[in-house]
Write a structure and sequence with these properties.
The strands form 2 sheets. Strands 2, 3, 5, 6, 8, 9, 11, 12, 14 and 16 form a 10-stranded parallel β-sheet that branches. A 7-stranded parallel β-sheet has the order 1-4-7-10-13-15-17, with no helix packed on it. It has helices at residues 9-21, 27-34; strands spanning 39-40, 46-48, 53-54, 59-60, 64-69, 73-76, 81-82, 86-91, 94-97, 102-103, 108-112, 118-121, 126-128, 131-139, 144-146, 150-156, 173-175. By secondary structure, it is mostly beta strands. The chain is globular, with a radius of gyration of 17 Å.
Length: 179
Amino acid sequence: MPGLSPLDPRLLDRLDAARRQSGLLTIGEVMESIARDNLVLDPFSLLIGVGVRFGRGNMFRPHVEIMAEAGGSVVVGDDNRFLSGCAIRANAGRVMIGNGNSLGEGGLVIDADRADAAIVIGDEGRYRYGAVIRGKATLGSGSQVLGPVIVEDCSLWAGGSFLESDPDQRGGVLKGVGP
């Protein structure tokens, strides 16, 4: 847009209008409601749906999308790391994320796209490198989904985090390629 500086109020108004039309928080609302208790590195590329609930101490890198639409819900605990390329959508279903998880490095899609979909993620897990999680999934604390793995209607046992020195004490792991 010729003649507009990056922080020109007219530009911000246009960006916020597009966000409102799409059911997203405005940039100001992201800063007021999310960044108050969490670390937001780039409010311009953080797309948060109206009604998504967050705890404290979460960190958001650029290019993260978290949406709740069509009666869906997303509830996020504390101290999670949302890395670039993370997309979480609850379209009629629900997503619940515990505390201390690492989500999205190398891409992650969490998609509760039907009314009976419920994705529950415990604490201190890792979900990254192109993983797709859909349907009904219960991923216990310390679990990991690594690689372009498609997880649908699945449960992983809880255990210690990926930092646990004894691998046999860690939560369940899915690693590889494919469904």
